[in-house]
Amino acid sequence: xxxxxxxxxxxxxxxxxxxxxxxxxxxxxxxxxxxxxxxxxxxxxxxxxxxxxxxxxxxxxxxxxxxxxxxxxxxxxxxxxxxxxxxxxxxxxxxxxxxxxxxxxxxxxxxxxxxxxxxxxxxx
Length: 124
What we know:
Blueprint: H1 4-37, H2 40-100, H3 102-123
Helix pairs in contact: 1-2, 2-3
């Protein structure tokens, strides 16, 4: 079961990757134009484009890592809440069963205590 936050984060990451792809295509187009015109302009444009590309890539990787961490935290938190709720329901059901059949509950507790004592006595 994928939470809505995880899906939203995945869509956000997908949009950012598409935006990076568009920016890289513009950078490559600029580089090709500069190479076509030749000379020192091409060298400067390539250096500038390379720096821009590197900074965009670094920013995207940092942002994607942060999004992944947030999504994992959200998923773990959601799983923890689900487990806690299930445990609370089980405890409530056990309490109800004990109230409904107290003699049976005492008998089971006595049997478990006897078994534990018997097993511990055999170990020694």
